[in-house]
Specification:
- The chain has three domains: 238 residues, TIM Barrel (Alpha-Beta Barrel), CATH 3.20.20; 77 residues, M1 Pyruvate Kinase, Domain 3, CATH 2.40.33; 117 residues, Pyruvate kinase, C-terminal domain (Pyruvate Kinase, Chain: A, domain 1, 3-Layer(aba) Sandwich), CATH 3.40.1380.20.
- Helix 1 runs parallel beside helix 12 and helix 10 packs across helix 12.
- By secondary structure, the chain is of the alpha/beta class.
- An eight-stranded parallel barrel has the order 1-2-3-12-13-14-15-16, surrounded by six helices.
- 43% of the residues are buried.
Length: 468
Amino acid sequence: MRNAKIVATLGPASCNEGVIKTLLEKGADVFRLNFSHGTHGDHQKNFEILRKLEHDFNRPITILMDLQGPKLRVGTFAEGKIYLKTNQGFRLDLNPEPGNQDRVCLPHPEIFKAIQTGTDLLLDDGKLRLKVVRHTSDSIETIVTTGGELSNRKGVNVPDIMLPLSALTDKDRRDLDFGLMLGVDWVALSFVQKPEDILEAQQLIKGRAKIIAKLEKPMAIQYLDEIVRLSDAVMVARGDLGVEMLPEEVPSIQKRIIHSCRQAGKPVVVATQMLDSMIYNPSPTRAEASDVATAIYDGVDAVMLSAETASGEYPVEAVSMMDRIITQTERDPVYRQMVDNSRPQPLSTVSDSITASARQIAHIIAIPVIVTFSDTGSTTLRAARERPESPILALTANLQTARFLGLVWGAHAVLIPPITSFSDMVETACHLACKQNFTKKGEHILITAGVPFGMAGGTNILRIAKVD
């Protein structure tokens, strides 16, 4: 009966059927295939295991592919590495020759086109910082403001500058074709800077999967509401945000993104370093447990495990711990108060009036479950936006819809045959609410749906039914 979902990343520590099955049993709702690592063969193997488990467990399993996006890196050094001293001069240029103590190649012409005097360049995940003092079309002269060791092909971040780069590299396009061929349910788009990045991905995906915009660039926050509107969901990618922003700025940005998604009724995922110490330890720090709980108190749809389950020593324990933290937090009376206080106002639409009424009725007469019928998932999404006290049993005849709803707060998706009549709808809802252990005979359930059945449209039915 947990509402918030768990996203588990698959990798070397979790790439066999036994471990993946255990992760599913311990509470993983969504499985992430990280295309920054691994081969197509690796991802296909994991995908096939998940679809087999979907059949064995007779429940939809949600699969998310995460695209790598552009990776900006310096070139190589003649000695393999150098040490930059604070206040020394250092040049980045387009010369492909190995670098030395004074210069290195930066093989990204786009940066030279966009760079400005006074801009900060961050190297090696922000460990080193350079300030631009002069620049031309093929060189950038800087002063080292934070020194340290710099070795071959370390990453470069350019905060506060809109880079003339697509969020989709040639590799991403190949990976995307492969993932869509497999049949992934969600595509996480990295390096989103502007709304046009989402539109470009939509043109390629053509509705074959839902799109998660990964917000990891500070520039994207300027277009937050528009990016949220265009996307199907949003991920707060705190690792990259934490490189390009001051650490103290990340929590407020996280809150702002969650608020925007809650207002729009779009799923929001908080990711990166949630239980980071569990990569090497069987239990988290108290600060990490509090971090997960804080996201749950904010009403997020899902929290994500990255290296914890992909390459850590305790993948099963990490999922189990995440499940325990979420469950305990959602039992706290303060959780319900915070979720109720942060609930967005319903829009002046028939759909929102129905779903808002459903939540209120379920609260007043203690209805144990809200059943939604939806072909596209829109009815379920609007119900989840209300964050009702009752769980949401999402019934759909569309397998793709059942799978993507695995990321949505409170939604427990079940695949059903097509519904053709009102009486069929009520009978199916009552039967499955009992079968899925949400209610028992003699109790009432609440049903929302849109008619005509089988057609995409707004929610326009609210029905209270007694389970006989």
